[in-house]
Amino acid sequence: MEFIKPGINFDFVGKMKMAFGVSLAMIIISIASIVWHGGLNYGIDFAGGVLIQVKFNGPFSIDKIRESFQPLGLQNSIIQQYGPTEVVVRVAEGATDIKGLSGKVEETLVKTFGQNAVEMRRVEMVGPKVGKDLTKKALLAIMFSWIGMLVYVAWRFEFRYATGGILALVHDTIITIGAFSLLNKEFDLTIVAALLTIIGYSINDTIVVFDRIRENSRKNIKKPLAEAINESINQTLSRTILTSLTVFIVLVALFFFGGPVIHDFAFALIVGVVVGTYSSIFIAAPIVLLWEGWKPSKLRRKK
């Protein structure tokens, strides 16, 4: 099955400057959003504190819950609805005495909503030292994944290809994180796992394009690299669309029907797949062309 018929010739390289401009704008917006919000909306995993998930068997409102928390000093805690019948309460480290906090919360909610109207579903506690350690390890995991990909692509192809691939991965990661900042979504270890998945997916898509570029470049060394890149992207375009579209459909289904537990994870992957497909075509390959203009490969210097 092919969405794109053989012989098609879209001028992807000709749109390189426009694509770089769009990417630069998205990166600036992402970074500006993080700065504007004073950082990401870190979950308990990174920020430290207590997370309490409560299920209600009857009608409830966030305002009423917050009002009932006033005697406990938790009225300024983050209270978010989690599905139609559940809420998640996030208490930052140092906001109050966390000893026996879950029991106090349950007692308060039972007094407000009734004995059988409240069910404690989950209580998680992370200290500040553990949160900082997890933050450090999450950053290292992402950075080491970039370094690992850089080494692999440089060994498999050439360093110019590795540079294009890694810059595309950095591009994908920043924009995905920026999407979470713009929507003020919680950033936790689940999202780090999503980012690592995106990095693996994106570099795989990029390598398919790189492999065809190298093949076409070696077939006709006299052909300008820009033409070889355009030809290669067009030849792999049908495969790229089919792969990305099938993954995208599955992720949309997970986003809408997978439940609140994996909602943000699916959202991160949706953003990552879309941006990763875009970067494989408009970012990674054109960077190879720019590198070639700056420092031609040995094969082309002999031409």
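Above is the first protein from milestone M3; the second protein from the same milestone is given next.
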Amino acid sequence: MSEETTIFDVMPGQLMSVSDVTKELSKMWSVSPGPAHEAPSEFRASQMNLILHFGLKTSLDEAKERFNTAISFAQRYPCRIIVLCPMGREHSDRLLEGKLFAQCYVGTSIRQMCCCEALILGYPTRVAGFLSNQVSIWLENDLPTYHWFNRIPSERVTGMHMNFIKRCRRVLFDSDVEQENFADIEWPRPGVAVDLAYARILPIRQSLGQFFSRFDTDKLAGGLKTVKTRYSKGREGEAVNLLKWTQECLEACAKDAKVELKAEFTSEECGDAHSLEIEWTYEDSRRFLWTHEKKGLDACVTADFGTGEIKTPMQVGLLDAPAALAEALFFSN
């Protein structure tokens, strides 16, 4: 990030004082369009608050990409988006600044119109500890709140931002971009934190789960030696989550088959041959290998669980960003 331009500077919206943001928002939705048309408020049925919280290490391009993801999500799941944009020490003399972004999107008919809103706060890091006070004013208090951290150091989350978490139904992070393991944070409630990388592999988990369901649990878990995921650069989060999901599945298989699971579970970067791989080895000739190409939807299973070799192509991909956001917020365990 350059010294001249901050995340707040590149966010869209009308610049105004922080105190005027909610006033202007209220005026905007109450505008009367005339007797022949409906007011924009008819198409603004917010279901939730979504706080998008950037850290200083967020690049300008990444910030814009995350913002666009949130807006795309809001077109399907109407919500109030609150964007928190830090300004570093070189901007310590700046005060809180506000922007208001609002836009209506029309589908194939006027009845498919959806109105989105984003309240954007620029703040110097010296006041980060007081953010919850300002955010509480901007929230729609009768709606559930979700919080999406992007490149916020874990010590700042635990030391300064736990007040946010107490009011949130879920907290999101992305292990592909975070340098620390957010899963290790002592969250106030079990299951409150969800990894977007785990949400993105939903189609993969579904496809592999359907494949494994064809085999007896003792053939899957019995005599298993190693389970290893391999990943290309930028896919570590997906690989680690795929490994964890596989381990949980195999533990359930071992329990059902009344066998001991002794396998070693590991993950490693493998270069650019494939986007993701997972391989199982056994004490005998059984084996399993799943590979996913780096581009497109092509994947392949090569396996032998004691009944002969199976080679099965698959068409499966990762969820796109708005769909992964919805999966993480509403459905992931």
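Note on the second protein: The first strand starts at residue 14 and ends at 16.
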